[in-house]
Amino acid sequence: MSSADPQVETVVDLNAIAHNVRILREYAGDAAVMAVVKADGYNHGAVRVARAALAAGAAEIGVTNIDEALQLRAAGIDAPILSWLNTRDADYAAAVAADIEIGVSSAEQLRAVEHAARTVGRTATVTLKIDTGMNRNGISAAEYPQVLELLQELVAEQAVRFRAMFSHLACADEPGHPSIDMQRDRFLDAIAAAKQYRLQPELVHLANSPATLTRPDLAFDMVRPGIAMYGLSPMPQISDYGLRPAMTFRARVALVKPVAAGEGVSYGHRWIAPRDTTVALVLAGYADGVPRPLTGRIAVRIGEHSYPSVGTISMDQLVLDLGDNPAQVRPGDAAVLFGPGEPHPQHWADLLGTINYEIVCSPRGRVVRRYAGDPEQGGSE
Asked: What's the Cα-to-Cα distance from 196 to each of 90, 188, 199, rounded to whole Å?
């Protein structure tokens, strides 16, 4: 790091994003790939990730809400964008005007989209999200006939274009779980029911990251990978599938200082130096996304060496025991908290009893994001 570098940052490798998209395209076979960039691209930056994914061969973009979709449109992204989780009072008119495909989960939502289309004077593009067993978002089996009847009317009036049907798998990260086939069968039944109303979707999609990697029979017309596109396996106990983690989380060393044997370090003196040693102060803490429960449980890499975290992780800083290598570390050095090598975000997830999704979504607050690589230009920084 130079003196101009931020104290704490994430570096997102766009070439890794492109690499992962190409791997997912291979697993998808003849199906298209929708790059899911919700939650600001899983905290990697939705706009830059979307551009990198499209340049690598993704065909469409998926987001949660209309505001996320509009931000992509404002950035000049003109690929198809699906938004699938919105409240009844979402700005459907803005979505229709910006040619955002709207995921519909109820008759009430479909009515809201109809009203927006008539207000804007433009046909709305809708996708039906079918609840096949996740029991969160999606059209319930009880309401489905009502939705189909209304959709049939709106398509006939050209108020709505019926583009697609999709659903979401609850247990795809547990290959062989009986719910996977159960949800597939319910999805096929929902597609058949739509056809009985003379409603033919242009495409259907079901597979998330784990299904893309393990169930080619569920690829249908398109797959919707999320976490795998960012280089993290949804089933790390099985394989990394050749994916490359795109995010490196790192902070600057602020101070190197001696600590005498018997002295305590940080709040609560939860660590007492067992010998004369040297410690390094790293400018990242729980306000930046380094969870306090990792106290004394992680190592941080500086250069070619890894050093254990000692003492309580605080709001703004953590401390490393440099042991026998104090001369290797200087103020201003980059300390890698996690990245594509070691330490790996999956290690943090295992220690915390959570999933790697949460780990890459954790850096926040003062953390500055920057990018390396540019798949659109075929090079890297």
From this structure: 31, 13, 7
On whether both 336 and 208 belong to a single domain, the answer is no
Per the residue annotation, which of 27, 38, 144, 241 is the catalytic one?
Answer: 38
Question: Pick from 242, 188, 235, 244: which is nearest to 208 by CA?
Answer: 235
- Clarify whether 307 is annotated catalytic: no
Among 203, 230, 257, identify where a domain stops.
Answer: 230
Mean local confidence (pLDDT), 130-145: 97
Written as six digits, the tokens of 355 are 């999933």
Please state the pTM of the whole predicted model. Answer: 0.95
Residue 38 annotated in active site: yes
CATH number of domain containing 297: 2.40.37.10
Residue 256 to residue 320: CA distance in whole angstroms: 9
Q: Domain containing 179 — which CATH number?
A: 3.20.20.10
Set 230, 257, 267, 286: catalytic member: 267
pLDDT digits 0-9 by tens, 287-337: 999 999 999 999 999 999 999 999 999 999 999 999 987 889 999 999 999
Tell me, what's the pLDDT at 374?
A: 79
* Cα dist from 19 to 26, 54, 67, 356, whole Å: 11, 12, 28, 19
The domain in which residue 318 lies consists of 247-372
Closest CA to 290 of 321, 319, 317: 317
Length of the chain: 381
Quick count: other Cβ atoms within 10 Å of Cβ 157?
12
Q: What is the number of other CB atoms lying within 10 angstroms of the CB of residue 202?
A: 12
How many secondary structure helices (H) and strands (E) does the chain include? 11, 18
308 shares a domain with 217: no
10 Å Cβ neighbour count for 76? Answer: 8
One-letter identity of residue 300: V
Q: Which of 200, 230, 260 is the last residue of a domain?
A: 230
